[in-house]
Specification:
Length: 97
């Protein structure tokens, strides 16, 4: 008997694959249920991974936007226009970032 998912050779008495945990044909025949919700767990893991990728993309997009943005920063204190990469007003020293 071989696993239908990963091809691992299984003992005749195995209801589940020793390698990947998928139910064997013997397990299907016997009508055993999974000890845990395999499908649900896998889906959860996949959606978590998708969220991580999304987050990473968001961070990249954000830094690109910051690089592209070349608008001068107007000082909230004195109204002087500062370079877009300024952290402090060059005139009065007020933090502008
Ligand atoms: Zn397997
Ligand atoms: Zn200023």
């Amino acid at each position: 008997m071989f696993c239908s998912n990963c091809g691992e050779e299984l003992p005749e008495t195995a209801y589940f694959c020793l390698q990947c945990g998928v139910k064997s044909s013997k397990g299907v025949e016997a009508g055993v249920s999974y000890p845990w919700n395999w499908e649900k767990e896998v889906k959860k893991a996949l959606s978590t991974a998708a969220k991580e990728v999304e987050k990473a993309f968001g961070t990249v997009k954000e830094s690109i936007n910051k690089t592209i943005k070349k608008e001068p920063i107007t000082c909230p204190n004195c109204g002087e226009k500062n370079q877009s990469d300024s952290s402090f007003c060059y005139k009065c020293g007020k933090a502008v970032s």
